[in-house]
Amino acid sequence: xxxxxxxILIVLHGSIGDVTRAIPLANLIKRAYPKAVLAWAVxxxxxxxxxxxxxxxxxxxxxxRCWWRSAIPFLREIRSKGFEMVLDLQRHxxxxxxxxxxxxxxxxxxxxRDAKEFNWLFNNLHIPASDHEISKFDHYLxxxxxxxxxxxxxxxxxxxxxxEEKSVRGLLRGVNAPFAAIxxxxxxxxxxxxxxxxxxxxxxxxxxxxxxxxxLGGEGDVSFAGEVAGFVSAGLRNLVGxxxxxxxxGVLRRAELAVxxxxxxxxxxxxxxxxxxxxxxxxxxxRTGPYGNEQYAIRGKADxxxxxxxxxxxxxxxxxxxxxxxxxxxxxxxxxxxxxxYGSQKQV
Length: 348
Hints:
Layout: E1 7-11, H1 16-32, E2 37-42, H2 47-50, E3 58-61, H3 67-80, E4 85-88, H4 93-101, E5 106-109, E6 125-126, H5 136-146, H6 162-171, E7 179-183, H7 195-209, E8 212-216, H8 222-231, E9 236-238, H9 245-254, E10 257-261, H10 264-271, E11 276-280, H11 285-288, E12 297-299, H12 317-320, H13 324-341
Parallel strand pairs: 1-2, 1-4, 2-3, 4-5, 5-6, 7-8, 7-10, 8-9, 10-11, 11-12
Helix pairs in contact: 1-5, 1-10, 6-9, 7-8, 7-13
């Protein structure tokens, strides 16, 4: 469909993982409409991902934590901007409401079959229905196809400031290169691995492959990381709860590889070109796996997996079933391929 809007809004208030996966679409949109103003409505958690992105001209924040106070001013701001086209990438009632309140004549969202909470009622254009096994990443690219935009190249364009790069170097001072990043925790408890398994993996990566280990995660993961650090005697730097999201991007970019469960840092690792061994139980790598790293996914074994439950009633049997040797096999494959292609490791 050929449209030539001068003001475009992307609505995706979602998780760090969702926003990361949608950034290549934003870059494609900007490439197709270079003179258009491209804005993105997002929540504070994922805001740092959009900072300094050349494709994004304006970021409109919605603070969900005090939605009863911020919702009306936020919607008024959206309305006042005069957007001509909205891409509703979230599929839920709230994103549909934002799209409709924009007053844009072209409001593009998901097909009714793929949307939730009556979202499709708020949009007047819809991408074709998709197979539920399609990845979220490819699903976002269907918006480009609908607009007759070639869905390539795939680019993120994360660039840290000079001060941020300096801070990252300081955080990694004393860490030997090459190193592996292990991200711990997850927004869903059902996705989490276990401290014991994580510690054994860290020790294996250090002893067998000569990799120092850097732990990454948010403030809610500090206790988990403390248990891991208590089991590991050498070659480990615990940065959990000590980095900003943008600093974590810098650490991941410098890592030789990364390991961890389904979480936002997994997608950021893939986005900066660092191979990632991803661990799966409650969710499926087919739908939400990291771009370009499908061959390094490890799926836990349980009859109920994937269950898509936030809390597991049976002790995360699927995650318990993931063996350290399985991780080692994937890591060995990554290191072999990198040595064959590049012949050297990244420097801290």
